[in-house]
Amino acid sequence: MKINGQQQRTIWEKDEMTIQIIDQRSLPHELVIENLTTTQDFMDAIREMHVRGAPLIGSTAAYGLYVAMREGLDPKAAVKALKATRPTAVNLAYAIDRILPTLQSIDNQSDRMQAALHNARAVTEESVVDCRKIGEHGLTLIEGIRQQKPDKVVNILTHCNAGWMACIDYGTATAPIYAAHDAGVPVHVWVDETRPRNQGARITAFELKEHGVPHTVIVDNAGGHLMQHGMVDMVIVGSDRTTRTGDVANKIGTYLKALAAHDNHVPFYVALPSSTFDWTLRDGVAEIPIETRAAAEVTHIQGRYKDQTLAVQLTPDKSPAINYGFDVTPAKYVTGLITERGVCAANEEAILSLYPEQQ
Ligand code: MRU
């Protein structure tokens, strides 16, 4: 995707020693490029959300493992430390567990490094291809809605940022939106601000603006009202972990959007690559680990004032706050899953018909 008309990814190799990322904490007001050179840099970048979004967390961890091998760390210990940075997005484990047995079987450090680098590149390129295909499959759904209301704009609501900034390119929830916009289908996006970190207001709005997609930022509580008044044709969100039965963990507040969509007969789609499925789980509410982050993200809010980024306090001194990062939407509220292999219903049989190797 593009920033200021320039092709850009969220993570890339600067040289053998340095991986570069966009430090997303500064968006949308500043574009800050950060160098990651040590394993600690990668762990800090994931934990402190310089990078965020399930597929991008996966790629960053995979490059972090490469740097850990360069530093001569034990593969198992490095994988364990990287996996401890953020608990909910399963893409993190997916990206590094898959290479661990190979790393453990290699004696020579230089060969271990090369294997880890090869894995990081593969995870990254696979994500780009998967997101592009999600866009193609999701486009068909948007075109279907457009056919039911010719001459009218298709209004899509999204929550958080499941855009290209959460991935490497295209995004998951945004990929069908970009595909539709590029194909000339008129779309407009309702962007939930997504408290407390405001990924919608800061990052999704930024992406859509850069790509020229019409959009409107709304407070998180507005979605139900818009749906009651026929102003939302479909919801598309991303996922951090989806069970084999179709339960979906995504940014806190997603569940409430699904309930409102269900009550108003608005189709609720989840866009995700196969790296976001946790094939070991069946009951999302009971089994998916939900990250709890610092209360300061709730008690304070970050914004721009006279060229300076500031955090200001919202709540009374000493009022306790709690900050759950994600919630789980049960499969029964999900109209369909948009994957790189096609669209399916959110149930085990339909999911396995797309992924028979996971039987
Ligand atoms: O806490 P974040 O910003 O990492 O949460 C991101 C989300 O919840 C996204 O919707 C999800 O990772 C899907 S990304 C394509």
How does this model look, in words?
The protein has 13 helices and 20 strands. It is an alpha/beta fold and about 350 residues long. Strands 8-7-6-9-12-19-20 form a seven-stranded mixed beta sheet, with helices on both faces. Helix 1 (about 40-45) packs antiparallel against helix 2 (about 55-70) and helix 2 (about 55-70) packs parallel to helix 4. The mean pLDDT is about 95. The structure holds 5-S-methyl-1-O-phosphono-5-thio-D-ribulose. 5-S-methyl-1-O-phosphono-5-thio-D-ribulose (MRU) binds near residues 52, 55, 239, 240 and 325.
Overall 3D form: globular
- The overall pLDDT, averaged over residues, is 97
Largest sheet: 7 strands, mixed
Ranges where pLDDT stays below 50 over 5 or more residues in a row are none
Tally the helices: what do you get?
13
